[in-house]
């Protein structure tokens, strides 16, 4: 994308030229050294309870004949399954051996039934954290949304609303077809196998142990997608449509969260860690709803870019320590925002000048 407005282009260049703040980076490392251990006693109950509540509420929405109850159950299912699904982000950062069996358990309980197996995000999200990739054309999770046309934001959300249909097509149709047509398979791997927002991103074919993980996860998602479509003949349309509505709502919330995870003001230049932090967003307490729309530590997204190895359950404590220690003029304080809607408004206003 090319920015023609000289003021916007200058702002983008200014942000990409921000030097690293040594005091902030040193404090982030020193104050959180003992917080980097993922605790199975938190991960497993949180993920399992979220999935249990989500599937129970989904079943309630399918089985009830009352419209109000169906809506209530559907909302509960959407929020609980959204929380359960958000653990995919943690999977990409957990050190090998830190949580034995968690990747397998999450995929069987959440990833495959929601058609978002972890191979769709693993080895993709870590590129978003690469020092030389963040905010560039090679970043799978970055678009300069604040510098794009006004219609780009509604389109960004609409694409998310259609995600369940796209995932069914990906796994029920493209997976079996691509196994019989090698050129199609190469395209499916490169273009339709990543949870990314950058349409120019192309994925490399997996290798080694990851290729084996990819294979069984994709097979499981394929079988589930086929069973989902086949359920029409056994149970009618209601279970499938209810599942898709809940899944769509879950994906739209996540897309809104993604929309405010960054300021999206970089035009493609490589950025320092401090610049990446300032282009990212924390929504810390006392914001009352951030834990719902940005669960599993995602409310501390800017802090996560400083400390990607700190598990979600320790980010709140890390934030408290940094706020209490760093001077008031530290860049750290500039990455904290009060809520979602002021951020949506900020990005929307920025796009209004790109008619």
Automatic annotation (TrEMBL):
The chain crosses the membrane at residues 52-81, 102-121, 151-177, 219-237. Keywords: Membrane, Transmembrane, Transmembrane helix. CDD domains: Membrane-FADS-like. Residues 72-333 form the Fatty acid desaturase domain. This is Fatty acid desaturase domain-containing protein.
């Amino acid at each position: 994308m090319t920015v023609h407005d000289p003021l916007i282009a200058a702002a983008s260049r200014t942000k990409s030229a921000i030097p690293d703040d040594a005091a902030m980076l040193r404090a982030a490392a020193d104050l959180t050294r003992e917080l980097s251990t993922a605790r199975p006693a938190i991960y497993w109950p949180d993920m399992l309870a979220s999935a249990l509540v989500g599937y129970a509420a989904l079943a309630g929405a399918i089985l009830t004949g009352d419209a109000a109850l169906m809506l209530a159950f559907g909302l509960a299912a959407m929020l609980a399954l959204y929380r359960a699904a958000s653990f995919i982000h943690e999977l990409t950062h957990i050190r090998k051996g830190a949580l034995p069996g968690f990747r397998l358990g999450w995929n069987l309980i959440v990833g495959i039934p929601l058609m978002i197996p972890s191979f769709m995000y693993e080895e993709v999200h870590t590129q978003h954290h690469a020092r030389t990739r963040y905010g560039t054309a090679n970043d799978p999770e970055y678009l300069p949304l604040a510098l794009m046309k006004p219609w780009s934001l509604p389109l960004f959300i609409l694409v998310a609303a259609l995600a369940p249909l796209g995932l069914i097509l990906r796994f029920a149709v493209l997976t079996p077809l691509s196994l019989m047509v090698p050129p199609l398979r190469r395209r499916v791997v490169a273009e339709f196998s990543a949870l990314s927002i950058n349409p120019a991103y192309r994925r490399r074919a997996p290798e080694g142990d990851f290729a084996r993980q990819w294979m069984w996860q994709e097979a499981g998602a394929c079988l589930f997608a086929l069973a989902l479509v086949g359920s029409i003949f056994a149970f009618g349309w209601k279970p499938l449509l209810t599942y898709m509505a809940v899944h769509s709502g879950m994906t739209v919330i996540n897309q809104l969260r993604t929309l405010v995870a960054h300021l999206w003001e970089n035009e493609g230049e490589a950025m320092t860690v401090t610049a990446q932090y300032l282009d990212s967003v924390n929504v810390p307490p006392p914001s009352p709803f951030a834990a719902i729309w940005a669960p599993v530590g995602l409310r501390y997204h800017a802090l996560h870019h400083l400390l990607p190895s700190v598990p979600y359950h320790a980010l709140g404590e890390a934030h408290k320590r940094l706020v209490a220690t760093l001077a008031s003029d530290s860049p750290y304080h500039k990455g904290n925002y009060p809520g979602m809607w002021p951020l949506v408004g900020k990005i929307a206003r920025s796009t209004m000048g790109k008619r």
